[in-house]
Q: What sequence folds into this?
């Protein structure tokens, strides 16, 4: 697949996993540098998802959740945690993932991510 085909595949997967509303907001800025930046992020981050390989979208989602939680990137963690209905990750898997994060990356990372998860679940009405 050529570079344009790879970018298009990455864009499509980003929309599939995060939803049209999020991607439309992220790409709405008419500034040419912002558009270039969005293409770069899409090709780098979502290009990894679109390349195929041995990991399923669910597995990739779990990895992204773990890495963003471990790094304390709660805005990105929230984005991906709110997209699990599209990626196939269950609430029980996120709960277990947060135990792993807390054990291997520290309690502050686990606690912060747990707060995000609790807030997201409260917003959708499914409790803690």
A:
């Amino acid at each position: 697949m050529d570079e344009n085909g790879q970018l298009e595949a990455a864009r499509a997967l980003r929309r599939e996993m995060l939803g049209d509303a999020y991607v439309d907001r992220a790409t709405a800025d008419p500034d040419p540098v912002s558009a270039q930046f969005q293409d770069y992020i899409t090709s780098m981050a979502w290009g990894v998802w679109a390349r195929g390989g041995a990991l399923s979208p669910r597995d990739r989602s779990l990895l992204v959740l773990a890495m963003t939680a471990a790094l304390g990137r709660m805005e990105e963690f929230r984005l991906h945690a709110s997209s699990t209905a599209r990626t196939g990750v269950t609430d029980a898997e996120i709960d277990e993932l947060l135990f792993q994060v807390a054990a291997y990356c520290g309690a502050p990372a686990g606690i912060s991510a747990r707060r995000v998860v609790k807030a997201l679940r409260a917003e959708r009405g499914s409790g803690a």
Summary: Residues 11 and 75 are 20 Å apart (CA to CA). Residues 32-50 form the longest helix (19 residues).
